[in-house]
Design goal:
This is Iron-siderophore ABC transporter substrate-binding protein. Its main location: other. Pfam families: Peripla_BP_2. Keywords: Signal, Transport. The protein is an alpha/beta fold and 342 residues long. Strands 8, 9, 10, 11, 12 and 13 form a six-stranded mixed sheet that branches. A three-stranded parallel sheet has the order 3-6-7. It starts with a helix and ends with a helix.
């Protein structure tokens, strides 16, 4: 349905309501209009973000999500979006992530329209065709120009609070809950997730206090993830602490990662190393490489291997659905690495 047709429908409904109101007046009705049409509980909601603020008048029924993790939060709160971005990394041939597919099946819902995300640019025409009453993008790279185009179409837009691609995963859930009028449900969801993580940490007291560093050697560049990265925060929730050597190697080039020259890898000391790779072949090649031999954790065997796009995507960063979906496999990898220290 086009937006013009939707607005025409609204106008027709308003005219009908006005006619009924006049008829009621002619019949000297004593009904209180406020009682006849009460405001929807929890609405309107106004949410401020990096570009301005959005006022959501009623509970949204046609939600479009953009960026990472927002579709997960919407689905976890029991709402099925009308359109979500394709996620080629970790997703199936249509760009649908496995935990999203599982949740859709659980809800008995069809797959939403999959938006083209290949260029990273918001597909304005595709979104307009979905006729949304809310565009949610709290963890995304939405630009001012895209924001202006969407709001110019009359679509309420909720962007990130401060910087692109920097909203903590817990905040994504809270913001989504507020926008949907489900703040209490969002708080309960976070409590459930935190309880699962806390229970897992309690089941693995051997994790407590061990230092950890997380890395990815890809295309000739060695990435070291910093404490601000969500995957590091999640690992710390399980009892680990970030190794002091990470701060010593931080060049300040980014808020959530730094690159390290191969000649300095012997300075990256920690009890456990978490290493990422797209395939097991790539992981094996890395662990057998000359640069990896400089890492003390490789010598001890204390390397937690996280292999495959879906497993990597599940914790990079975690989402309302992926955190628990990938939790067991991630903990198993950590357990094996810690066992090598004994």
């Amino acid at each position: 349905m086009t937006r013009s047709r939707t607005r025409l429908g609204i106008a027709t409904a308003a005219l009908t309501a006005a006619t009924l109101a006049l008829t009621a007046c002619a019949g000297e009705s004593t009904a209180d209009p406020a009682e006849a049409a009460p405001a929807e509980a929890g609405f309107p909601v106004t949410i401020s973000d990096a570009f301005g603020e959005a006022t959501i008048e009623t509970a949204p029924e046609r939600v479009v999500t953009w960026g990472w993790s927002t579709a997960d939060a919407v689905l976890a709160l029991g709402v099925v979006p009308v359109a979500i971005p394709a996620q080629p990394y970790g997703g199936d041939e249509d760009g649908v992530l496995p935990w999203i597919d599982e949740k859709l099946q659980e809800l008995g819902a069809e797959t939403p329209t999959i938006l083209d995300s290949a260029t990273g640019e918001v597909p304005i025409q595709e979104i307009a065709a979905a006729d949304p009453d809310l565009f949610l993008a709290p963890y995304s790279g939405l630009t001012q120009e895209e924001y202006d185009q969407l709001t110019g179409l009359g679509i309420p837009v909720v962007a990130y609070p401060d910087q692109p691609w920097a909203t903590p995963w817990r905040d994504v859930i809270s913001i989504t809950g507020q926008a949907l009028g489900k703040s209490d449900e969002a708080a309960a969801l976070l409590d459930d997730i935190d309880a699962q993580v806390s229970d897992t940490a309690a089941e693995h007291p051997e994790f407590a206090g061990l230092t950890v560093a997380q890395v990815w050697d890809t295309a000739g560049t060695f990435y070291l993830y910093l404490p601000a990265d969500p995957r590091v925060e999640f690992t710390e929730d399980l009892g680990f602490v970030s190794a002091p050597s990470i701060a010593d190697l931080d060049s300040g080039e980014s808020t959530f990662y730094t690159t390290v020259g191969y000649e300095n890898l012997d300075r990256l000391t920690s009890d456990v190393l978490v290493a990422y790779a797209d395939t097991q072949e790539q992981m094996d090649e890395f662990l057998a490489s000359d640069q990896a031999r400089l890492l003390p954790q490789v010598a001890t065997g204390a390397v937690a291997q996280v292999v495959g796009p879906a497993q990597i995507a599940a914790v990079s960063p975690p989402t309302a659905l992926s955190l628990t979906w990938g939790l067991d496999a991630y903990v198993d990898a950590l357990t094996q690495a810690v066992a090598a220290l004994r």
